[in-house]
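As noted in the main text, all predictions were made from sequence alone. Below is one such record, for 2-oxoglutarate ferredoxin oxidoreductase subunit gamma.
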Amino acid sequence: MTERKEIRLAGLGGQGVVLAGVLLGQAAVDQGLYAAGSNSYGAQARGGGARADLVLDNQEIDYPHVEQPDLLVAMSQGAYDAYASGVADGGMVLFDSGLVTPVAPHDRYGAKVTAMALEEFGSRQVANVLWVGLVAGVTGWFDSRALEKTMLGLVPERFAELNKAALAKGLQEGRAWEVA
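Prediction:
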């Protein structure tokens, strides 16, 4: 990564949006980048809107807020509807094609991530880690070793192997997407 990047992850409370943002931000720092992040979520514990914003750069960050994300990950239709139009020119929108119907003119890439989490791992709880792998695979902005190390430090040990497998699957799927 050679220049400032803005990432917005958005979905619903209970989808692991905030943890995915923390994981990406900490991994970026661990690989030597600067990162600034913020989170917001509704008053409801589950089901309300949730958002994690990240700013990454290879130099100190003087403005830590996301204004026009280079990458939006929309984990719900509401998140897509709220944020897709604000993506920077040339930006990418990744969305859960099982939950979101896209309409914006940006580069868009869909995968049934929640369904994949259920079918391949028996748990929708790993969908956020699948997303982290997809983001890293598609963008090439993250070191996979830093992601795995960071992830293992953030998830309970009893779920470590499940999350390692989900991260590997996300990376594999993301790298297979041919993004210009």
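The helical segments are 17-30, 77-83, 113-121, 127-139, 144-154, 160-176. The longest strand covers residues 49-57. These features were considered when defining construct boundaries for the mutagenesis experiments described in Section 2.9.
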